[in-house]
Design a protein that fits this description.
Structural class: alpha/beta
CATH architecture: 3-Layer(aba) Sandwich
Number of domains: 1
CATH class: Alpha Beta
Radius of gyration: 16 Å
Shape: globular
Helix content: 25-40%
Strand order of the largest sheet: 3-2-1-4-5-6-7
Order of helices and strands: EHEHEHEHEHEEH
Distance between the termini: 10 Å
Number of strands: 7
Bound molecules: glycinamide ribonucleotide
Number of helices: 6
Amino acid sequence: MALSTGYNRVRTAVFISGTGSNLKSLIKFSKTKKSPISINLIISNNSKAKGLNYAKIFKIKKKILNYKNKNLSEEKLLSILKINNIEMICLAGFMKILSKNFIEKFPGNILNIHPSLLPKYKGLNTHKRALNNKEKYSGCTVHFVNARLDSGKIILQKKVKISRHETEASLAKKILFQEHKLYPKAILKTFNL
Ligand code: GAR
């Protein structure tokens, strides 16, 4: 991805559904000198998402779309993104699947973070499945979003060791800690920084 101008940061929207800890880490990153992006919009499909509090804390515009009708919500979403001149989208715990039509409107400019070492454990319940399969390692992946779930080109991954007494909760925590570092690194990589 190339920076649109030498000086301006790429206007980015972060999509969330829940806690928003990755959103928080991305906001913090966006405020550093080296960041090629600014976060100008937070989108949530869930009006109760805890992460929406960061909109207030950091004075970032937020929009909630209920996603009851996917086509309609995506149409609204596209116009909101256009009005706000959004060029890049970071999915951060966004639990809805974007349509092919939507994804094609932002070619190569939608990123996602997933809590597994893709291509292993696409979809939900990643930690549970990794533990059930007695994996020695799991981790997280930042990838470009394409029309197939969790299948776009991988940008960066971080491996974590699964300990003998690991639980779903402890593994989720361990991986989330790494996610917060991996997402900013992956963004820098997409800008060749
Ligand atoms: C993160 O672990 C993220 O990788 C995962 O949801 C969590 C969101 O946490 N995303 C997915 O499972 C997407 N399929 P957060 O709201 O604290 O950033």
